[in-house]
Amino acid sequence: MSSAALAVAVTTFLASAVEGIEMVAIVAGVGVTRGWRAAIAGAAGGLVVLAVLVAVFGLALTAIPIGILRLVVGALLLIVGLNWLRKGIRRLAAQGLRGAGPGDPGPTEEEEVPRDRRDWTGFVLAFKGVLLEGLEVAFIVVTFGGTSNQLGVAVVAAIGALVLVAAFGLAIQPLVRRIPRSALQLAVGLLLTTFGTFWAVEGVGVDWPGSDAAIVGLLGLYVVVAAGYLAVERAGWLPRTAAGAASG
Amino acid sequence: MASPHSCRRGVGLMISAIAAFGRFWYRFIVGDDWSIAIAVLVGLGLTYALRRRASVAWWLMPAVVVVVLGVSLYRGRLNRTGSGRL
């Protein structure tokens, strides 16, 4: 392998792995909180649309307005993520890590996972995550591979990175299943809020300091803030109404 | 040729499908606290405005997220009824 091809392979592999981690984090988060059937169906749907886009556009893929896609998907993920984060904080403050028990009021209407029909919420979340991240991987392949005339090497490196990240996600899945639902809801809320903020802000044309590394910074900030609000909720420092106090 | 009865049934089915589609997206996007969706849209608008003025704009949305999460938790605590719903 020439040094130019090696450089393309390493760059594409690493960049695709970063996008793959984001993709797997969203699908795994949706899988453990909403159910794997909807998450896998959404991910598969996203991959099919992605494959059609790649087949139709090919090297002209960069013509797709990724900024608008990032803005729409990011804003939706941010709103959904903030709702989950809020519910996760309240649940964890009220029940700790006990999970479902006699005092658990159960899921609200919009977060209940339907058993007799398709869970569209889980499907849409996984679909959007896979489609957007998959498109970014395709852009990376086209940019690095196409411009250096090493498209085959770039495709192999990107697929290798995605398979490796997906295998890692599959391997740690039994560990994730043991985490209580309240903590999972908070964790997935944190992830969706982080990616949502990152993509939506990129979508309006603003660059993050440190590029993709800003995701780690955002996640760290939101973890600290969520921990702070959780402590406040648990201590009962926030004002309560008489009815709220009576309900415990 | 379709009878008027089957036509009405078809229109009714279509309307209920559109209503269900709208309900899904409303619940999916707005959830049970509309202020979050509004704050995110306003925050993104302000971020775009800051960018147009060539100011540093990346910090605004994280700040909006921190504030709106606190406000939403505060509102939830105030509005919580005796049902104990979380």
Record keyword descriptors for this entry.
heterodimer, A: 248 residues, mainly alpha, 8 helices, 77% helix, B: 86 residues, 76% helix
Order of helices and strands of chain B: HHH
How large, in whole angstroms, is the Cα Rg of chain A?
20 Å
Distance between the termini of chain A: 67 Å
Helix percentage of chain B? over 70%
Helix-strand layout with pairing:
The complex is a heterodimer of chains A (248) and B (86).
Chain A: H1 3-34, H2 36-57, H3 66-95, H4 120-147, H5 151-177, H6 181-203, H7 214-235, H8 242-247
Chain B: H1 4-29, H2 34-52, H3 60-79
Helix pairs in contact in B: 2-3
Describe this structure as you would to a colleague.
The complex is a heterodimer of chains A (248) and B (86). Chain A is mostly helical and 248 residues long. Chain A contains 8 helices and no strands. In chain A, helix 1 runs antiparallel to helix 4, helix 3 crosses helix 4 and helix 3 packs antiparallel against helix 6. Chain B has 86 residues and is mainly alpha-helical. Chain B has 2 domains: 31 residues; 55 residues, no CATH class. Chain B has 3 helices and no strands. The C terminus of chain B is likely disordered. Chain B starts with a helix and ends in a 7-residue tail after the last helix. In chain B, helix 2 packs antiparallel against helix 3. Chains A and B meet through helix 3, helix 4, helix 6, helix 7 and helix 8 of A and helix 1, helix 2 and helix 3 of B.
Can you summarize this structure?
The complex is a heterodimer of chains A (248) and B (86). Chain A is mainly alpha-helical and 248 residues long.
